[in-house]
Design goal:
By secondary structure, the protein is of the alpha+beta class. It has 3 domains: about 10-135, Acyl-CoA dehydrogenase/oxidase, N-terminal domain (Butyryl-Coa Dehydrogenase, subunit A, domain 1, Orthogonal Bundle), CATH 1.10.540; about 140-240, Butyryl-CoA Dehydrogenase, subunit A, domain 2 (Beta Barrel); about 250-395, Butyryl-CoA Dehydrogenase, subunit A, domain 3 (Up-down Bundle), CATH 1.20.140. It contains 12 helices and 9 strands. The strands form 3 sheets. The chain has a 4-stranded antiparallel sheet, with helices on one face. A 3-stranded mixed sheet has the order 1-4-5. Helix 8 packs antiparallel against helix 9 (about 295-325) and helix 10 (about 330-350) packs across helix 12. The model has no long low-confidence stretch (mean pLDDT about 95).
Length: about 400
């Protein structure tokens, strides 16, 4: 029997050992530089505080300008002060941010992929100039309002309506599970109109715009989710996103957010695995580290197998996105697999920590709770399963 126990305090060595397939070597120098820069930010600015933020149900809005300086807000967008980085670089950033906490990565996703992405793709030049530079810098915060109390997985049944009144629009209805709205200056709101679904840029201070924070929560506690009510909110014609018509507008943004989740979920899973591995190397029972027992090693190995498979899947999807060949079905496959496996890894990691695993000083239970939300938003397991089922059979099973 050999006894060359790995040092639980040498995280670089542990990560090198867990990269069994050598996936790190598939990344470019620039991609590793982005990853390392974001990882350093997470280590310095998020890890020391995240247990307290989660416990108090606090989102650190003061991080927004720092995330802007880090270059992760609207990361793949070009022009108007946006970073213009590659899809793989953004994916690696999302992974490292979610290794800190899903709530922080969700902020970056709502701000960059959903709100900024909608303005960048569908907005007028005036709208882009007004909002994108400030949002990229974290000086203005945006939200994205699509889901409603009775229209979650089926956005085509939304009831929020915008009617024309002279040269204005008048918005009425309600939205639910809307990230960031209580701290945002702007909401991208999707509504039915006589012309079909359209998008509107709605200042959160507009008369008739009401926000209620959804709490208390057992998941995503270091994040903000809200319910919105629109009581005849009057908007000028310039509030309309001119390029967005129909559900294609919000769906394009959702696919961007789902892409980030493919990578981000791996971060929560990796952090859970690393917490379990370090604990197993330190914790001794029956005269030896619990990492030396067969059942513990099986748990650790199963985690690494899924982490490695998930990383290859995310990288393949990222390369396809950078090449312009990525399809929504491929994103669904990535989101379904990586979040499902991340949930399993976080739960299993908690078991290795034993009773201590319920304390917030250890990350797996926090990640496990957060991932229940990640599993639900931007398409549930069931929705992505049916997207893939339709692709395989040609038959729509949603109804």
């Amino acid at each position: 029997m050999t006894d060359a126990r790995r040092d639980p305090d040498d995280l670089d060595a542990l990560r090198a050992a867990s990269d069994v397939l050598g996936i790190d070597a598939l990344l470019t120098v620039d991609e590793r530089a982005v990853r390392d820069r974001v990882r350093g930010f997470v280590d310095a600015e998020i890890r020391p505080h995240i247990a307290d933020w989660f416990d108090r149900g606090h989102f650190p809005v003061e991080l927004a300008p720092a995330l802007g300086r880090l270059g992760v807000l609207g990361m793949t967008l070009d022009g108007h002060g946006c970073p213009g980085r590659s899809a793989v670089e953004y994916g690696l950033a999302a992974l490292e941010l979610e290794a800190g906490d899903s709530g922080i990565r969700t902020f970056v996703s709502v701000q960059g992929s959903l709100a900024m992405g909608s303005i960048h793709r569908w907005g007028s030049e005036e709208q882009k100039r007004e909002w994108l530079p400030r949002m990229a810098a974290g000086e203005a915060i945006g939200s994205f309002a699509l889901t409603e109390p009775t229209a979650g997985s089926d956005p085509s049944s939304m009831k929020t309506f915008a009617r024309r009144d002279g040269g204005d629009w008048v918005l009425s209805g309600a939205k639910r599970w809307i990230g960031l709205a209580s701290i945002a200056q702007l909401a991208v709101v999707w509504a039915q109109t006589d012309e079909g679904v359209r998008g509107f840029l709605v200042p959160t201070g507009a008369p008739g715009f009401e926000v209620a924070v959804l709490e208390p929560k057992g998941s995503m506690r270091a994040s903000v989710q809200t319910e919105l009510n629109f009581d005849d909110v009057r908007l000028p014609a310039s509030a309309l996103l001119p390029g967005a018509r129909g559900l294609r507008g919000p769906f394009s943004a959702l696919n961007e957010a789902r892409y980030g989740i493919v990578w981000g979920a791996l971060g929560a899973a990796r952090d859970s695995f690393e917490a379990a591995l370090r604990h197993a190397l330190r914790r001794e029972q029956f005269g030896r580290p619990i990492a030396g027992f067969q059942l513990t090693q099986r748990k650790l190995v199963d985690m690494v197998v899924e982490l490695q498979k998930g990383a290859l899947l995310a990288l393949q999807i990222g390369r396809a996105k950078d090449a312009g060949t990525l399809t929504p079905t491929q994103i669904s496959l990535g989101k379904l697999n990586n979040v499902r496996e991340a949930v399993a890894i976080a739960r299993e990691a908690r078991t290795i920590l034993g009773g201590d695993g319920v304390l917030l000083e250890h990350s797996p239970i926090r990640h496990a709770a957060n991932l229940e939300s990640v599993r639900t938003y931007e398409g549930t397991d069931e929705v992505h399963t049916l997207i893939l089922g339709q692709h395989l059979t040609g038959l729509d099973a949603f109804r």
